[in-house]
Design a protein that fits this description.
Shape: globular
Largest sheet: 7 strands, parallel
CATH superfamily of the largest domain: Glycogen Phosphorylase B
Distance between the termini: 38 Å
CATH architecture of the largest domain: 3-Layer(aba) Sandwich
Structural class: alpha/beta
Number of helices: 16
Radius of gyration: 22 Å
Number of strands: 13
Order of helices and strands: HEHEEHHHEHEHEHEEHEHEHEHEHEHHH
Strand order of the largest sheet: 3-2-1-4-5-6-7
Strand content: 5-15%
CATH topology of the largest domain: Rossmann fold
CATH class of the largest domain: Alpha Beta
Number of domains: 2
Length: 395
């Protein structure tokens, strides 16, 4: 790759004036970037866009640049749908052995992406690397720090796990957790870890109480919305039963997963078509769904952060959910937080109480999100972190 091509890959911001120092070059590595649009990909796209006037940015991943994936640099590598790795994972004995060494199809994707990124980084100098991808992203970062002499930031998108343990043990110069709960747990598991807490930011220009709404006129009011994977951990059946105990009102469930048929049958039996709806929604349409509802609820047993709760609050909805350690940190005092294992009857009462006071508590809910979780606050925190690593204080 020529030097002209190298320069082009980082020309995503306003060029500096002749007297100004050249912007630092920051590279993100995220295997699904440009191919899929999940939470991690949306996070990187939003953060990169907000920092593009400050740094030159490239995002290495599996697909080309699009409006949903700005600054993408596509790399060629097998992804998690690769037939060979999928077949090995399904083979009795072999699949179990590979998973012991974190070589399931997703980890193979991360490994192949890390190898492709290593080759790219050797040809394209940068000043700071931001990794994602468990053990293999962590090893890429450790190599980049030792071989290229650049600082590395590992952003943990999930809760503490084997993957996060492996990444943290590679000793990035900064390990970013979403909550104090996660940062504390990781610091306990990996003593001396340089852990920082930077919550996910909400785009308050998109998630607002005013704007287009999804048509829910066929449902009985008030409407409670729940969003999440349709699996037992999320407790969607509790919300169906809670709605059935209320004298009026409906439940809308957005999501996909193995419990879909079971939940559809339960909702149809207990609530009927005028009080129950299941659907899937594209990320770009979520503000419409939040605005169309009257309350947001979740009976999920655990969360690594809970972006959907903050999006719902930003769109004006009262939120009722389980108050585990993470949600107490992230949502208190703006949401109604219930004890783990809360039965449907108590959920129904809590939703009714939240609806009754929704109008009077609206200003406080909106202020809570704006002052603690606005996306500009997140971008500013990352800029401060990056600057501190790019220009370390003299010792």
């Amino acid at each position: 790759m020529s030097s002209g091509e190298n320069k082009f890959l980082f020309e995503n911001s306003v060029p500096p004036s002749p007297s100004a120092a050249a912007p630092k070059r920051i590279v993100f590595v995220l295997s699904g970037y440009g191919k899929v649009l999940r939470g991690a990909e949306r996070f990187v796209a939003d953060l990169a866009g907000r920092l593009a006037d400050r740094y030159r940015i490239a995002v290495l991943g599996g697909g080309p640049a699009t409006p949903d994936a700005p600054f993408a640099v596509p790399l060629r590598f097998p992804d998690r749908t690769n037939r060979l790795t999928a077949a090995a994972d399904r083979t009795p004995g072999i699949g179990h052995f590979l998973r012991l060494f974190q070589l399931d199809p997703l980890n193979w994707e991360w490994l192949f992406c890390a190898l492709a990124a290593k080759k790219w980084l050797l040809a394209n100098p940068c000043d700071l690397l931001v990794t994602e991808g468990g053990r293999w992203g962590g090893l890429l970062g450790r190599w980049a720090h030792r071989r290229l002499g650049i600082p590395v930031v590992d952003v943990a998108h999930g809760a503490p796990s084997r993957w996060e343990d492996a990444a943290a043990r590679c000793r990035p110069q900064a390990y970013v957790a979403l909550t104090r709960v996660a940062a504390g747990e990781m610091a306990r598991r990996v003593p001396g870890l340089a852990a920082r807490v930077i919550p996910i930011g909400i785009d308050l220009d998109r998630f607002t109480p005013d704007g287009p709404r999804e048509d829910l006129s066929a449902l009985q009011r008030p409407v409670t919305l729940s969003v999440g994977a349709l699996e037992p951990l999320k407790g969607m059946d509790t919300l169906v039963r809670a709605t059935a105990l209320q004298p009026a009102g409906s439940l809308v469930v957005l999501g996909r997963g193995p419990q879909r048929s079971e939940l559809a049958a339960l909702g149809t039996h207990l609530l009927g078509p005028k009080r129950f709806m299941m659907a899937s929604a594209r990320p770009g349409d979520m503000p419409r769904w939040y605005r169309a509802a009257d309350a947001f609820a979740s009976a999920s047993a655990s969360e690594s952060f809970g972006t959907v709760y903050l999006e719902a609050l930003a769109c004006g909805l009262p939120v009722v959910t389980i108050g585990d350690a993470v949600r107490r940190e992230v949502l208190s005092p703006a949401a109604t937080l219930l004890p783990p294992g809360t039965p449907p009857g108590d959920f129904a009462a809590a939703i009714a109480a939240a609806l009754a006071t929704s109008a009077t508590t609206l200003p406080a809910r909106l202020s809570f999100v704006r002052t603690r979780y606005g996306a500009p606050l997140m971008a500013s925190a990352y800029a401060s972190l990056f600057d501190s690593l790019l220009s370390p204080s003299p010792t």
